[in-house]
Every structure is written in structure tokens, then in C-alpha cells.
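Data availability (excerpt). The following record was deposited with the supplementary files.
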Amino acid sequence: MTGALSGRGPPSKLDPVRRVVLWVALGYTTGALLAWTLLGTADTAPVFFASAGVTSAALVLSRTGRWPAILLTVALIEVTVDVLHGWEFRFAAGFALANTAEPVLGAVLLRRYARSTPDLTRRPGVVAFVACCVLAGPLAGALIGATTVAVGRGAEWASLFLPFWAGDAVGVLTVGSAVLAWHGSRAGRRTGGLLLAALATSAVTVAGFWPLHVPLLFLPIPVLFWVAVRRGVPALTLSGVALAVTANVVSAAGRGPWRDLGDPWLAAATLQVFVAVTVLTAWALAVTAREREDERARAADFERDHEAAHRLQTALLPVLAERLPGVRAAGAYQPSEVRNEVGGDWYDVFRLGDGRIAFAVGDVVGHDLPAAVTMGRLQTALRVAARTSGSPAAVATVLDGVAADVPGAFCTSLGYGDYDGPSRMLRYVCAGHLPPLLLTATGVRFLTGGRGAPLGVRTRRAREEASLLVPAAATVVWYTDGLVERRAEHLDTGLKRLAEAAEQVRGETGPAAVRDHLMATLTAGGPLPDDVAVLCLHLP
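Predicted structure:
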């Protein structure tokens, strides 16, 4: 009634801080009671401490503003449970300090080096979690806990340190990883099968640890390995908790392979090491299996992209007519890696409405599907601009604007020109592109006119074009930089090599023969560091 009168409405849910504190209190109390009831006595502190994993996971998953409430809750529960089980307050306070300092150290280190909640299905996340929360954090707790008992009861500090560290570390390794792995995981949709795997792990662990004279402790290992490979990390963490709890309970009942060691602390610590090694090995298998699945998925995605890109590349590269008015053309494209068969280089030859023949060679930055898509958009824009804008300089100016709007098109290099057969007039522009090569009866030479910046690069100078009257029986070779550029080699060396190769076929009248010779000579038929497009135009 009061809520209704005040306009606030009835309370519906706990606020986030209270909800986190409630879950931490429930989990920590359960773990502490399990430890003291089944694993500890009034004279000995429990070794396997599942509650350490609860606190560690809670801090990792919570904002730092919620840490004081979580740590205060943990400290109060720890002191209460310890005092109820016969420990003096001074010991209980020491254990409370140990069990709050340890998760804080682990969470702080993890946030510093991982900078986010670790992905426990990936190797970097596993390494960060184990190093910070499983090893470093429990190290601080073991120092405080062992010192508390050693000073208070005069026990040997060295014999206490390893059990404290191993017990808390395994608690974080199993319970902490389970909470983190299941937080936001979709594995809960298969809860029935995963719980069955955990129950099977417990049953096999009992069967392996119960006999006194027959060594069967290896029995849980293949079960965990199977869960790791077939079910993944979330299921493995659940089975890891089942292994740790069952193995410790059975060992505390006087069974297990290490019951005759004489020193109960050493026996318990040795058990934790066995659990840790088994769980970590299975975890490594799970991560490896996940990585292989990811590799197969990436391979499948690559094949799909490769097929789509290959179809796109095939569709965009024109099928050149054997004869056009006053021109014979032959082109070739070779990707930088043969298996890709896709890239951003292209060539094109097409008729204009007034009888001229337009031609282009371009190079978009990149060697992948996005580069091929960008190339297709530029090629389409070029054909439209060529039919509406007139001169090559005007076409390049239009494409400057297109390159500014099309993602990935900025800084594309372009060689574009047109040829009028009756007048034998060739006009061309090189927007950041290498100069075309002219083969005539008297020799070979590069056409160095019409040069300008790549597409989309703003300069104060307007686009300029060059023109020349082409001698009879000449061939013009357009190409992209992949034909001549080589690592650790000056560009002039590659251009000289191209000119020398062209000189060998200068008398050829078939553009296909010139193209084939240049490709064979300059690419050697092998993979190249960059894509190559070549267009040979014979002008009879």
C-alpha cells in the first residue's frame, strides 16, 4: 500500500549489487561448508577450497565498485564458518584476509593484462586466467594462510604453504573457470547431457579412487578428455568441478592412492596437483579442438569467399572482341596468389558512341573480395563517365569524385585513354599509374605524358591528358605495377626489364603473342607479390 501511495510501485527485482552479493554468499557458503564438513577437521584447515573460485569469478565478472560489498560478504562468512568449526577468531581473521586478498590480486592482474573478461575457449584467455587467478592470486592467499597457522600454532611454514596454495588454486581452476565459462554461454541449452557427463566423471572418479590396492586413479582422465574434445570448454569445466569435489571427498574418507603418504597435508596437496594437471591437460585439448573447428570454419568461409570473388572477377573482366574498329586487343590477369584468383587489378576495352575505342587499366589497393567489389564499382562508373564526359582528363576528374565516395577506392591508380582509328589519334591520362609502353617499327618507348595523382587525391592542378599520332602497326601495352615491381629492387630496373622483353616481340602484329611473351618473361609463371593486369592494343 505504501509503495502504491508513493507512486514507486511494488519492488520487482533485487538491484544488481544485492543480486551479486546474494549469489556470492550462497556459493561461498556452500563451498566453505563442503570444505569444513567433508574435507577438514577442527585441527586441520581444509585443503581443496571451492569457495576461492566463487570469489575470484565474482570479482572478474563485476565492476570494481561492487568489490567492497563482495569482499565484505566473503570475510563475514569466512569468519563465521571458521569460528563455528572451532578456530579462534584470530585464525578466522587471518583466513578471511587470505581469502579476500587472493581474489583481489588475481582480478587486478587479469584486468591489467587481459583488459576484459577472458575467453576461456581461446589460448590467450586461458593463459591469462591461469597465470593471474590460478597461480598469482592463490600465491598471496597461501602466504597469508600458511603464515597465520604457522605463527599461531608453531607449525612448519614450508609444509603448510604448498597445501594452501594447491587447494585454493584448484578451487579457482575448477569452480572459477566453470562460473566464467558458463557466464553468458549458450551451453545451458544442453544441460541434460552436460550434467550427465559430470555425473559420469564423478562415478568414474569414485571407481578409480576407491580401491586401496589397485591403482585406478587414471580412470577419470579419458572421461575428461572425451568431454573436452566432444563437448567443449563449458562442459569440461563442469566435469572438472565434479572431478575435484569427488576426488577430495573420497580421499578425505580414507581412500585414494595417496592415503599412505603419512603427512595428510602432503597427501592433500599431491591430490590437488593431480586434479590440476588432469584438468589443464583436458582444457588444452578442448582449446585445441575449438581452434581446429575455427580453422575449418575459416577455411569454409574462405572457400565461399573465394568462389564468390572468382565469379565476380570473371564477370568483371571483359571478354575482348578479337577485332574492334581500328584496334586488336588482348588482356590477361594474374592474382598475387594463384589460390586467391581475385584482387583489385582490372582492364577494360569498349566502344564509345562516336566510333572511338576506350581502354582502361586500374589497380585498387588490396588483394581480396572487398578490393574486387571496389574494382567492379569503379569499372562501372568509368564506363558511364567515358560515354558522358568526353576527354580522358574529364573522365579521370569524374572518377576522382567517385573514388571519394566508394569505400576502398581512394588512391586507386588508373590508366585510361581512347583511340580514334581514322585519325590515329591516341589520348590518355595516367592517374598515379605507370606509363604505357609503345612498340613501333623503330623501337620501344614509354609514354610519359598525362601524369597526375591517383584517384581521389586532391591537388591544385587540374587533370591533364596527353595525345599523340600513333604510327602504323604500333602496339600499346598497359599494365599494373605487379608486372614490374619487385621487393628490394628499384622500379627503374623493372621498367627496363619490361622494355627489353617488349623489344623481343616488337615485330609481332598479334596482341596475344605480345601479352603471352610479357607475362611469361616477367612473371616466370609463378606467384607474384602483387596482382598483375596487362592489356595489349595493336593499332594496325
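Summary of structural features: Residues 91 and 152 are 7 Å apart (CA to CA).
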